[in-house]
Amino acid sequence: MRILGTQAALAVVLAWGCVPAGGGGGGGSAACQPGDLRLCECPDGVESRRRCDATGAYGPCRCGDAGAGDAGDAGDGEGADMGEDDGGGCAPDCADRECGLDPVCGVSCGVCDLMETCGADGVCACTPDCGDRVCGRDFVCFASCGECGAGTVCDDGQCVPGQPPVIEHLFASQAAIDQRSGVQLTVIAADPDGDLERVDLEAMDGQVIGTFETFNQRGFDYTLTWRQANELEPFHFDRGGTRRTFRIRVLDAQGFHDTHELEFRFICVVSALQTPACNGVCLAPQEPCDEM
Asked: Considering the entire predicted model, what is its pTM?
């Protein structure tokens, strides 16, 4: 315990206040930064702390709870940050604030993450920096800098004209299809813009028969059957069969496309013999079709 001089002890008795460490009258009016702590001495000679409030002035010496004052100093006001009375009569109120100082006691309500700044409302936010980028994402907050219009793509932050996809290779497992089989089609396609979307098989009138399945980034498969072709238009042919043409269309996300046409022969095989088709039905050998 520190022993005070007679003059200082008399001042303590008269004022029953706190004296800043190091001497001096030290009222509560010294300018300070909210949240700052300052040493002070209680009437019983025990050192404690005074906290600077939101008005920029030091509050009273925390003499009634010196131990709590020391703990608050060691923890840098953790109790106050949690909204508890700091022992000096000030209860912080952060409410919805997640950063900055609370408006009551001037204690911290939290800190923002990297690349974020604390706004006047106490909310952390990231401000995008797109610079001259008009599309894609900025490199600060990874937020969108804009979207490109139809027929254009984003290239290093700038919208440039897009390019159509290209059918590089096309394979068909067979040229003739009977009523029990189908032809497997494989398409290998590429797109300079890297935005391949799908591959469709179409009838020549533009009707979509089906969409190819993707087996890798550039490969697409589809099986066209005799039955599918017959459903488009029932077959009606003699023993020689008939030919039909189909269109393969490769599309990208911008609506660009590339096409290729394929012709197949459709036949009927019954008892190992080619037979006619009548109204979409394969006939037996020697079976007549009145409508042929």
From this structure: 0.52
